[in-house]
Amino acid sequence: MPTRYQGSSRERRALAAFINLQRAANTVQSLGMKHLDQHGLTPSQFAVLEALYHVGPLCLSELAQKILRTSGNLTMVVDNLEKSGYVKRVPSSEDRRYIRAEITDAGRKLIASIFPHHAAHITELMSRLTADEQDRLRELCRKLGTGENS
């Protein structure tokens, strides 16, 4: 097992699984998002554009939750996308505290040109696993992410 911790076998197993999960996730994230540099986007900026492109306008708190970022981080990401002309903030007419992010035509054009390549790249990267392994990985990640114990 890839840990030198001398705890119980249960602890060593959990730590080894955690380390392997972290290493795999970091590797896949790095390889999967490498091409974004060519377009001047960070992974968070790509995530925002992708969410707005596929889901539609979202309030900033929903968007932060969807892309797993803090609201503080999201503010900076949306600021930068807005400066680039890819996203705009639209205040609610009923509640001034409610601000919705919308993708602009320029943002839509950019993500539409990037996403097919991204999807193909992720598909190739994930092809290291069989279809059944990918399905099982998805199930295990969902179980781990939701905290269910069955």
Defining key terms:
single chain; mainly alpha; Arc Repressor Mutant, subunit A; three-stranded antiparallel beta sheet; 3 strands; 64% helix; 8% strand; globular
Please give a structural write-up.
The protein has 150 residues and is mainly alpha-helical. Helices cover 64% and strands 8% of the residues. The protein has helices at 9-33, 43-55, 60-66, 71-83, 105-126, 131-146, and strands spanning 58-59, 87-91, 99-103. Strands 1-3-2 form a three-stranded antiparallel β-sheet.
Topology:
Layout: H1 9-33, H2 43-55, E1 58-59, H3 60-66, H4 71-83, E2 87-91, E3 99-103, H5 105-126, H6 131-146
Helix pairs in contact: 1-5, 2-5, 3-4
Would you report the number of β strands?
Answer: 3
CATH superfamily grouping of the domain at 40-127 = Winged helix-like DNA-binding domain superfamily/Winged helix DNA-binding domain
Biggest sheet: strands, sense, closure?
3 strands, antiparallel
State the name of the first-level CATH class of the domain at 40-127: Mainly Alpha
Rounded to an integer, what's the Rg over CA atoms? 19 Å
Succession of helices and strands = HHEHHEEHH
Mean pLDDT: 89
Strand adjacency order, main sheet: 1-3-2
Helicity, as a percent range: 55-70%
Shape summary: globular
Euclidean distance between termini CA atoms: 25 Å
SS class = mainly alpha
Fraction in beta strands: 5-15%
Count of alpha/pi helices: 6
CATH fold-level assignment of the domain at 40-127: Arc Repressor Mutant, subunit A
Low-pLDDT segments:
none
CATH architectural group of the domain at 40-127: Orthogonal Bundle
